[in-house]
Design a protein that fits this description.
The protein has about 375 residues and is an alpha/beta fold. It folds into two domains: about 5-240, Type I PLP-dependent aspartate aminotransferase-like (Major domain) (Aspartate Aminotransferase, domain 2, 3-Layer(aba) Sandwich); about 245-375, Aspartate Aminotransferase, domain 1, CATH 3.90.1150.10. The protein contains 14 helices and twelve strands. The chain has helices at about 5-10, 50-65, 75-80, 100-110, 120-130, 150-160, 175, 210-225, 230-240, 245-260, 280-285, 300-310, 340-345, 365-375; strands at about 65-70, 90-95, 115-120, 135-140, 165-170, 185-190, 205-210, 265-270, 295-300, 315, 325-330, 355. The strands form two sheets. It has a seven-stranded mixed β-sheet, sandwiched between helices. Helix 12 (about 300-310) crosses helix 14 (about 365-375). It is globular, with a radius of gyration of 21 Å. It starts with a helix and ends with a helix.
């Protein structure tokens, strides 16, 4: 079945007898038992809820996995993921990484005794693996520098070492990239972004390749308690129905916007994996069917960056990404503000870098808004 059809129809499991086309919101914290030692399959919503289960089955189908566990935010999903590891365990992670994930790794995971190394290439990933390494954690494309990792090549390394490969697939979604089919063991999503798609829900998901990982993560989810609510689950189910068509529109408009940005004198560098001069363009074409809606770019100076942020009208100066509205972010002060200055600078996250999440507005309006904002930059 085509992935766009799966997006619309979900897991197709029937949870009520009314014929409702949309899955109901089961706003119940607890469920009655038919008898002693008997269960309907639902006991308490922290463990499972019918609306949440429908969402999880849908994402499992989209990613091609064995199971999905939904959490109250993307960071709740990462936090639960890190509970798979013990003090002394070592993880190799992408050098360029979402600031919230980096913050959790450095302030929480390392405090709990987990050791982290960061690698910018497949070769560096391989050379950083030690006897204590239990997993490789990659974003691809990365946030905010849009670096791409060859999932298949890294998978060869992790399988030869019998360690986990975890892929953050937030930027491309299963519509454009399916890491489990490329050799990953766990796929992470900030469902707040493209899966929800409307800037109105917080969610996170982990999709796993086998039942053993599912059992371990479900125990962690039930025990730590950061489960996704029935209402937020419904919002993601609703968002996913249009995921395929939204991703196609994001992709088409982002390509046009990136090509326009390249022609502007005040724009010094455009980071978009759909541009043919992107160093990872060929890898992207091999492992993904689209390039997504995320663009980062550097301008000529700090004043230009701030002027753009203050002069855009249609595009909103705000954190987050992946929604219907175009959003522009200043990583230095927002998503990556908690990184030490030397770490930010080394990664290219400076006062001239902006990140643009291309929304669903007309292509011409987005470009015109950027043009007017640049014109206002002095």
């Amino acid at each position: 079945m085509d992935i766009s059809t799966v997006c619309v129809h979900g897991c197709r499991k029937i949870y009520d007898t009314t014929g409702a086309v949309s899955v109901p919101i089961f706003a119940s914290s607890t469920f009655a038992h038919p008898g002693v030692g008997q269960s309907t399959g639902f006991d308490y919503s922290r463990s499972q809820n019918p609306t949440k289960e429908y969402l999880e089955h849908t994402i499992t189908s989209l990613e091609g996995g064995a199971d999905t566990i939904a959490f109250s935010s993307g960071m709740a999903a990462v936090s639960a993921l890190m509970e798979l590891f013990l003090p002394g365990d070592h993880i190799v992670a992408s050098y360029d990484l979402y600031g919230g994930t980096f913050r959790l790794f450095t302030h929480i995971s390392e405090k709990n005794g987990i050791k982290l190394s960061y690698a910018a290439s497949t070769e560096e990933i391989s050379s950083n693996i030690t006897a204590a390494t239990k997993a490789v954690f990659i974003e691809t494309p990365t946030n905010p520098m849009m670096n791409v990792t060859d999932i298949g090549e890294v998978s060869k390394i992790t399988k030869s070492k019998n360690i986990l490969l975890i892929v953050d697939n937030t930027f491309l979604t299963p519509v454009f990239q399916r890491p489990l089919l490329l050799g990953a063991d766990i796929v992470l999503h900030s469902g707040t972004k493209y899966l929800g798609g409307h800037n109105d829900a917080l969610a996170g998901t982990l999709t796993v390749i086998n039942d053993n990982l599912a059992e371990r993560l479900r125990f962690i989810s039930k025990t730590t308690g950061a489960c996704l609510s029935p209402f937020e689950s419904f919002l993601l189910i609703r968002g996913i129905k249009t995921l395929a068509v939204r991703m196609e529109r994001h992709n088409k408009t982002a390509i046009a916007a990136a090509k326009w940005l390249v022609t502007q004198d005040k724009i010094k560098k455009v980071y978009y994996i759909g541009l043919q001069d992107h160093p990872d363009y060929e890898i992207s074409c091999r492992q993904a069917s689209g390039f997504g809606g995320m663009i980062s770019f550097t301008v000529d100076n700090e004043q230009t960056a701030k002027s753009i942020l203050e002069n855009v009208k249609i595009i909103k100066y705000a954190e987050s990404l992946g929604g219907t509205e175009s959003l522009i972010t200043y990583p230095l002060l927002q998503t990556h503000a908690d990184l030490p200055p030397e770490e930010r600078e080394a990664r290219g996250i400076n006062d001239c870098l902006l990140r643009l999440s291309v929304g669903l507005e007309a292509e011409s309006d987005i470009i015109e808004d950027l043009k007017n904002a640049l014109t206002g930059a002095r």
